[in-house]
Amino acid sequence: EMTRACGTSKRCLSAYTRGSFSTGSRSGPAITADDCERGRCKVGSLKEQVQPSPAQAWKRLKDGNQRFVEGISEHPNQDSSRRTLLSGGQFPFACIFGCGDSRLAAEIIFDLGLGDAFVVRTAGQVIENGVLGSIEYAVEEFKTPIIMVLGHDSCGAVTAARNAAQTGDMPPGFIRNLVERILPSVIAPSLPPHAHVNDMVREHTRQTAMRITEQSHIVSDAVLSGEVAVIGVFYHLRDGKAELVFSSQDLTLPNTPTGEGQSPTTASLPVSVKQQPRIVFAETWGEASPWGL
């Protein structure tokens, strides 16, 4: 049971929200173990903490990625005091559902630390019931304000789906299950003529983000209320840049100076349909698909 053991709880909670527990953070004053009675303070119940807004959460992720791209990562929240603080619970500000590719470590490319992100991964960021349940858990249990679907260039799973669509030959074993769920993205009518596999990855990332809001009542209700944003991000392996390709809402912060807004402007991106989601069982989705997969 977590209890308040000192008088700095408000300061700690504020610092936790900003991600400034780690020494040397640019986001605010460092909080040391001494500030929390040498690490004994568990900052009350972490559930009492107020999460950032979806726009604030995206800015933190975007800023962390920019540091990673520039080679000035701060590696926040990775010290012993942070580890001690989290021994009593977690309160991640982001849920990241990404591809299982070994080059796509979310905590590294967004310069995060312990307890910052609730990460779910499958090859080709393919949705199934366990994935949806994990994402819903982050929203219900931690009130996580942002859900990111993270794809990347040269994705092997998307490439396999493209090859299957072109040749008609399906891969063996459970790899086929992955390909079946990616196929709608590689044959989407919205793709440009002679689409490159990276165009298909972007489309798959967008479709996956939209499917999460369609299939999950918990997520769609949170999106409709404005408490949660679902975004799609395309990661560039060579330069490390995270490109926003979908958002369920505008993520531009108020009073943002011209030229310092989101890139691209989220207001111009496709948004989730504002309607009650239809019920789809992810594990039988392929059997009911119009392609007869």
Please describe what this structure looks like.
The chain has 293 residues and is an alpha/beta fold. The protein contains nine helices and five strands. It has helices at residues 9-18, 54-70, 80-85, 106-109, 129-142, 156-167, 175-186, 197-215, 217-225; strands spanning 94-99, 117-122, 146-152, 229-235, 242-247. Strands 2-1-3-4-5 form a five-stranded mixed β-sheet, with helices on both faces. Helix 4 (106-109) links the parallel strand 1 (94-99) and strand 2 (117-122). Helix 6 packs across helix 7, helix 7 (175-186) crosses helix 8 (197-215) and helix 8 crosses helix 9. The longest helix has 19 residues, at 197-215. The radius of gyration is 20 Å and the shape is globular.
